[in-house]
């Protein structure tokens, strides 16, 4: 302890005011019940001061003070209350001679300004309260304390300066009154406690400040932008980690890095020293620095603000923002905008196309957005829902009515969940006012997120449809009737066809039966006829003996009649064969002159007997023909035998020639016989017709010959014609195609 | 009649007795030996036991008709060399083709005068003789079959 301090102690302990040099000025009178000798008193005071000097802890100091009070002044009940910083009540720091419960129950709030103790704390140096025998009024003013009804004294604890508020109370009982020594004790202890408390508060504040500073440092360092503070000369006062990386280099860093840092510092100080800062106080400029780590360029925006600090004077706080990133971001944004513009252009082109399409549709089309506003309509829709300013009032009214009707349809659609709606909307023709019922078909358009973007409605004129339906109905009716008639007619025809078919079938059957019958009959005729002709022949040959000439002549009659009968049977058979279709064609190539020769040879006996001149006139250039040889031969045999039969005298000529133009040829048999009247030319080809039908007719024959000939000729694609006059001979001509397939 | 002579033997098959007798009388008069049969079955028996040189076959016959009889004759090695002439009152087209298919060597339509029939028979016999001369092997084969 320095000597000056001991001197001071002695003065203080002697009860002299601070700064006084004479410790003996004014005697310190001991308390009534604690009389002390001056030496003992001084010793006790010194003891207190030394005790205080050696203590710095609040609790220890208070304990020591109360011990001293008890020992020196016999104060056996005492209490020390301290008002700590930021607390709303006073807390007990130390006590003597009081029950722990009483202390625990005792609280003293600084807000309780009616409490006399609080009052003392702010206004009075001390107060004394006698034991409870007081008037009611005084009792009311007595504060509640652990001393209960005993008398007690209260001394406010204050710092050295009189302006200071009291920071605590010393309450004690025992001494009758507050002696100067007790006052000295209280003020000495108060000063000591004030000192302790101040130190306490100071150290608490330091800790807090240090914590706040480290927090601030952490925050500043955590900022990715470089932050620094410089003095007006450009010297760096504060820098965060990012700033230090740019502007601070130590010896162990590479030379390149140190160079880069030096460069950065130069750039920074030149930027900061510009007049702009001084004039505006805050500025914003771009600044190119070097990245000390890799040497690359870094573009920063420098924001500088001048600050006035009372202790440090003017400083400049600078924040560097890396605009390289910003620039990239800006570029990205402008690229995005460009894309948006491009999309807009495309969308507008799309929209133009769409407009073109919907305008070309004859039905009105309206696009309504999600709010029910019309966003698009084509020309036919415009005609219904818009008017020009100069339009008549009627027209405007109609258009409004149309709009209202359509809006109600669409709003119903917008409110509902349905994706599609078909309904009838009764509109009016804006020009004429005639009702225009339309069928409205509306569909919702959804975005890719399922939000409603628009409602597209197409209106279809129902009048046209109705008219068409009506027309179609009429047409259908007409068509149905027609169909019915056709059906009836068809059914009729089918019925008749069926009838005809049945009749044809029956006829065919009947015909087949007839043919079969005739064929059988022919066989049955032939068998006996065979015997008749056979025996007749045998008799004629004299196998049974020589015969009388008369008998011979009669046998001749039998034979010729038998032959005639056979001819009839053959001819009937031919007719039935033809009718039954059982005379198939057998086409072959042959020469007509050869065939004529064969026929003449076969009829040789007949010709010889007739005594007629039979001649031929056949051109040599006849090419072979393709036809049914047997049938041609039969025809010629018939024609020639007829000619001989019906020619009593004169001649018969067989001629043949080519008919080049018709690709045909003809064979004629001409006679000088009895002839046929033209009126009868047709009849001679009919079945069983001979011109002389009398039983005693002059010429034999069945009357089937020519009929058969004509049928045969037609079968092979040709025909037979006749030229004749009664009594002037006849010419029968067979015409045949060159080839018959 | 069954005695073997140099005369050609004709098997005459017909169910109509007058016709059969008439032809038989005339053929015998003309120098043939005649064996008669009145139906197809009989014709087969006669053909085997009388070994005729030619057979005149009516087609419409009781018991077994002429077409069937002809088919059997032509299927039998003992008789298939014998010429068969169909002699029929059927004159419709197709009958002659049917007869040829059944194996008939010729076709004659009734009525047929006896003398015309004789001419046809001689023609067939002459053809068969000509064939026999030129086709010895065929005969040999037949002879072998007979043994």
Shape of chain B: globular
| Class from secondary-structure proportions of chain B | alpha/beta
Please state roughly what percent of the residues of chain A sit in beta strands, choosing from under 5%, 5-15%, 15-25%, 25-35%, 35-45% or over 45%. 15-25%
Low-confidence stretches of chain B: 132-147
Helix content of chain A: 40-55%
Biggest β-sheet: strands ordered side by side in the sheet of chain A:
3-2-1-6-5-4
What does the radius of gyration of chain A come to? 79 Å
The coarse overall form of chain A would be rod-shaped
In which order are the strands of the major sheet of chain B placed?
2-1-3-4-5
Number of strands of chain B: 5
Termini separation of chain B (Å)? 24 Å
Count up the helices of chain B: 6
Helix content of chain B: 40-55%
Description:
The complex is a heterodimer of chains A (741) and B (147). Chain A has 741 residues and is α+β, with helices and mostly antiparallel strands. Chain A contains 19 helices and 23 strands. In chain A, the strands form 5 sheets. Chain A has a 6-stranded antiparallel beta sheet. In chain A, helix 3 (58-73) packs antiparallel against helix 7 and helix 14 (462-540) runs antiparallel to helix 15. The longest helix of chain A has 79 residues, at 462-540. The model of chain A is unreliable at 17-34 (pLDDT under 50). The longest helix of chain B has 21 residues, at 114-134. Residues 132-147 of chain B have low confidence and may be disordered. Chain B has a 5-stranded parallel beta sheet, with helices on both faces. In chain B, helix 1 packs across helix 5 and helix 2 (40-50) runs parallel beside helix 3. Chain B is globular, with a radius of gyration of 14 Å. Chain B starts with 8 loop residues before the first strand and ends with a helix. Chain A binds chain B through residues 519, 522-524, 526-531, 533-535, 537-538, 541, 543, 562, 566, 570, 573, 577, 582-584, and chain B through 16, 18-19, 22-23, 25-26, 29, 60, 89-94, 110-115.
């Amino acid at each position: 302890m320095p000597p000056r301090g001991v001197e001071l102690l002695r003065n203080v302990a002697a009860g002299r005011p601070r700064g006084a040099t004479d410790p003996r000025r004014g005697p310190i009178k001991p308390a009534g019940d604690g009389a002390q000798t001056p030496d003992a008193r001084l010793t006790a005071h010194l003891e207190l001061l030394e005790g205080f000097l050696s203590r710095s802890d609040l609790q220890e100091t208070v304990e020591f003070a109360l011990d001293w009070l008890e020992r020196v002044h016999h104060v056996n009940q005492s209490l020390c209350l301290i008002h700590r910083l930021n607390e709303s009540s006073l807390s007990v720091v130390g006590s003597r001679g009081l029950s722990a419960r009483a202390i625990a129950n005792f609280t003293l709030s600084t807000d309780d300004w009616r409490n006399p103790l609080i009052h003392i704390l702010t206004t009075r140096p001390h107060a004394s309260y006698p034991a409870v025998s007081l008037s009611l009024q005084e009792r009311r003013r007595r504060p509640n304390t652990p001393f209960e009804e005993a008398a007690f004294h209260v001394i406010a604890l204050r710092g050295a300066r009189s302006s200071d508020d009291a920071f605590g109370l010393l309450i004690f009982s025992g001494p009758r009154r507050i002696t100067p020594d007790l006052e000295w004790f209280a003020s000495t202890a108060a000063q000591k406690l004030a000192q302790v408390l101040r130190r306490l508060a100071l150290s608490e504040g330091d800790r807090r400040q240090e914590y706040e500073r480290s927090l601030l440092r952490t925050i500043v360092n955590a900022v990715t932008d470089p932050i620094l503070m410089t003095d007006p000369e450009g010297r760096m006062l504060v820098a965060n980690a990012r700033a230090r990386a740019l502007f601070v280099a130590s010896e162990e860093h590479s030379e390149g890095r140190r160079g880069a840092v030096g460069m950065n510092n130069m750039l920074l100080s030149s930027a900061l020293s510009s007049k702009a800062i001084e004039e505006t106080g805050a500025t914003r400029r771009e600044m190119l620095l070097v990245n000390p780590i890799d040497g690359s360029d870094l573009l920063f925006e420098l924001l500088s603000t001048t600050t006035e600090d009372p202790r440090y004077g003017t400083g400049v706080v600078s924040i560097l923002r890396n605009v390289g990133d910003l620039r990239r971001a800006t570029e990205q944004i402008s690229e995005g905008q460009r894309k948006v513009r491009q999309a807009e252009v495309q969308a507008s082109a799309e929209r133009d196309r769409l407009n073109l399409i919907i305008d070309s549709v004859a039905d009105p089309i309206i696009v309504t957005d999600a709010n029910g506003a019309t966003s698009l309509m084509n020309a036919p829709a415009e005609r219904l829902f818009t008017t020009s300013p100069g339009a008549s009032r009627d027209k405007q009214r109609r258009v409004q009515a149309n709009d209202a009707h359509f809006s109600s349809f669409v709003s119903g659609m917008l409110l509902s969940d349905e994706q599609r709606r078909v309904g009838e909307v009764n509109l009016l023709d804006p020009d004429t006012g005639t009702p225009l019922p339309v069928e409205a078909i509306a569909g919702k358009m959804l975005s890719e997120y399922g939000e409603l973007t628009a409602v597209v409605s197409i209106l279809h004129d129902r009048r046209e449809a109705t008219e068409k339906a009506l027309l179609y109905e009429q047409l259908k009716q007409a068509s149905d009737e027609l169909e019915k008639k056709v059906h009836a007619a068809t059914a009729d025809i089918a019925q008749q066809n069926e009838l005809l078919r049945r009749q044809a079938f029956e006829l065919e059957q009947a015909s087949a039966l007839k043919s079969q019958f005739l064929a059988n009959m022919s066989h049955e005729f032939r068998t006996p006829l065979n015997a008749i002709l056979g025996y007749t022949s045998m008799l004629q040959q004299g196998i049974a003996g020589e015969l009388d000439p008369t008998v011979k002549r009669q046998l001749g009659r039998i034979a010729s009649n038998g032959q005639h009968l056979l001819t009839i049977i053959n001819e009937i058979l031919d007719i039935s064969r033809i009718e039954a279709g059982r005379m198939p064609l057998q086409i072959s190539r042959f020469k007509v002159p050869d065939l004529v020769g064969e026929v003449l040879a076969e009829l040789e006996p007949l010709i010889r007997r007739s005594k007629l001149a039979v001649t031929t006139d056949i051109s040599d250039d006849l090419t072979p023909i393709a036809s049914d040889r047997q049938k041609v031969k039969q025809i010629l045999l018939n024609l020639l035998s007829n000619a001989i039969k019906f020619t009593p005298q004169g001649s018969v000529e067989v001629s043949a020639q080519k008919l080049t133009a018709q690709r045909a040829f003809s064979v004629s048999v001409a006679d000088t016989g009895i002839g046929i009247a033209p009126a009868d030319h047709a009849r001679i080809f009919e079945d069983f017709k001979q011109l002389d039908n009398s039983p005693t007719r002059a010429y034999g024959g069945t009357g089937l010959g020519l009929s058969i000939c004509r049928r045969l000729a037609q079968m092979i694609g040709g025909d037979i014609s006749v030229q004749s006059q009664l009594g002037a001979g006849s010419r029968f001509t067979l015409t045949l195609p060159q080839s018959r397939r | 009649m069954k005695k073997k002579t140099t005369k050609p033997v004709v098997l005459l098959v017909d169910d109509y007795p007058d016709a059969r007798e008439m032809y038989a009388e005339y053929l015998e008069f003309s120098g043939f030996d005649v064996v008669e049969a009145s139906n197809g079955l009989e014709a087969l028996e006669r053909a085997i036991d009388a070994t005729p040189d030619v057979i005149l076959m009516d087609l419409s016959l009781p018991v077994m008709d002429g077409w069937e009889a002809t088919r059997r004759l032509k299927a039998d090695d003992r008789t298939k060399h014998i010429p068969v002439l169909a002699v029929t009152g059927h004159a419709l087209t197709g009958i002659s083709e049917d007869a040829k298919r059944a194996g008939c060597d010729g076709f004659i339509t009734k009525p047929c005068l006896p003398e015309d029939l004789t001419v046809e028979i001689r023609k067939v016999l002459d053809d068969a003789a000509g064939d026999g001369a030129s086709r010895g092997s065929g005969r040999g084969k037949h002879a072998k079959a007979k043994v």
